[in-house]
Design goal:
Elements: E1 33-36, H1 40-51, E2 56-59, H2 62-71, E3 73-77, E4 80-84, E5 88-89, E6 99-102, H3 109-115, E7 125-128, H4 158-162, E8 169-174, E9 177-179, E10 185-187, E11 192-197, H5 204-214, E12 219-222, H6 226-247, H7 251-256, H8 258-277, H9 286-295, H10 302-308, H11 315-328, H12 334-347
Parallel strand pairs: 1-2, 1-6, 2-5, 3-10, 6-7, 11-12
Antiparallel strand pairs: 3-4, 8-11, 9-10
Helix pairs in contact: 6-8, 6-10, 6-12, 11-12
């Protein structure tokens, strides 16, 4: 998703009139909400919030924007079907927001971050719902790496400049959702988010956000260890998403086929070692992680869905950032690296190498 918006501001300038900076201890309400990105997860969150009686707007583009403006949102989940009408635009036209959900792919975050600047006030909370290692991973956290930038997900420091860590509440999303041909979203799991301040504190704004989500049929759990929750979800993503592109196997097949399951197990082991080296604890053991993969059923991972639709793959945040963190602590991830390389190869147009060079006429 590429969003067009205003030019990036000077990274040293506060947004709007926020000269005093963000206040993570402010007890402002969570409303109004804006959801940026009209993929399956963004539409599901927006529909649930609107159905819960909250003031919600969306930023989208193209055909999705037109459909939302004409017909609203439709969500099919385990409880039935709900519809929601809400304002939507491709511009930041909705004023200062209480909470902004950044529901775009990691590769689209920088453009989205530049676009939302007019909607950020001194108490605005920003909740990125991205997969993988986020750019904020080392922010406001103890440890030897301080404010180290993760180049795989923020190569030029743009995200760090546009989205100060004090505005962020970390989120881990457990929602399996797909967009159907008619534009409706179908969710096959309960709606669950894990939320946490980057410094682990229990703040009024964190409690307010969790309460607002709870009134919208979203199971919102708060945690003082958001990075542990992040690694748990990331381990599942890294073990199954790139492999799904290579094998075109659903999650149930990856858990049930012995050949694929062995690869999933090895990637889990490699990822868990990196997490431990960075002081994080994966909250599920290997058996429980594998059981969760199988329980997802015949569901195509988000990366497989992107591959089939010829969209860019989210390999930087889900894979490359983990390899970068592994290198920082001197660990190798040979199976993970190989599967990532194969997934990238499969997603590259025939006759083009990973650098984009046409090799179709090269000698054999």
């Amino acid at each position: 998703m590429t969003l067009s918006g205003p030019q990036d501001p000077d990274p040293h300038d506060p947004p709007n009139d926020c000269s005093s900076g963000w206040r993570s201890d402010r007890s402002a309400g969570a409303d109004p909400f804006c959801v940026v990105g009209a993929g399956a997860i963004g539409c599901a969150i927006a529909a649930l919030l609107a159905n819960g009686g909250h003031a919600v707007s969306m930023i989208a583009r193209g055909a999705r924007l037109d459909a939302i403006q004409r017909h609203g949102l439709m969500l099919h989940d385990r409880t039935g079907t709900l519809r929601a009408r809400l304002p939507a635009s491709d511009r930041p036209d909705f004023g200062i927001q209480g909470t902004i959900f950044l529901a775009v792919k990691s590769q689209a975050l920088a453009d989205a971050a530049a676009l939302i600047r007019p909607m950020i006030g001194p108490a605005t909370v920003i909740v990125p719902t991205v997969n993988g290692i986020p750019w904020w991973y080392f922010k406001r956290a103890p440890g030897p790496f301080g404010d180290t930038r993760i180049r795989a997900v923020d190569p030029d420091g743009r995200l760090d400049a546009l989205l100060p860590a004090e505005a962020i509440i970390g989120a881990v999303v457990y929602m399996a959702a797909e967009t159907e041909p008619d534009g409706a979203v179908r969710a096959s799991m309960d709606h669950r988010l894990i939320l946490g301040e980057l410094d682990g504190r229990a703040t009024p704004r964190l409690a307010a956000l969790a309460a607002a989500l709870a009134t919208s049929d979203i199971d919102a759990e708060t945690t003082p260890a958001i990075r542990d929750a992040l690694w748990t979800k990331l381990t599942l993503n890294l073990a199954t998403n790139p492999l799904s592109v290579v094998s075109e196997a659903t999650l149930a097949r990856q858990a049930g086929d012995g050949r694929l399951r062995a690869i999933v197990e090895r990637i889990i082991e490699e990822t868990a070692a990196v997490a431990r080296a960075h002081g994080a604890r994966i909250t599920l053991d290997k058996a429980a992680l594998l059981a969760r993969v199988g329980a997802a059923g015949d569901f195509a991972t988000s990366m497989l869905q992107d591959y089939r639709r010829k969209r860019p793959l989210e390999t930087a945040a889900i894979g490359d950032a983990v390899l970068e963190l592994a290198e920082k602590v001197g660990l190798a991830m040979p199976v993970t690296q190989t599967v990532l390389d194969l997934a990238r190869y499969r997603s590259t147009p025939t006759g083009t190498d990973v650098s984009g060079t046409d090799i179709s006429g090269a000698a054999a």
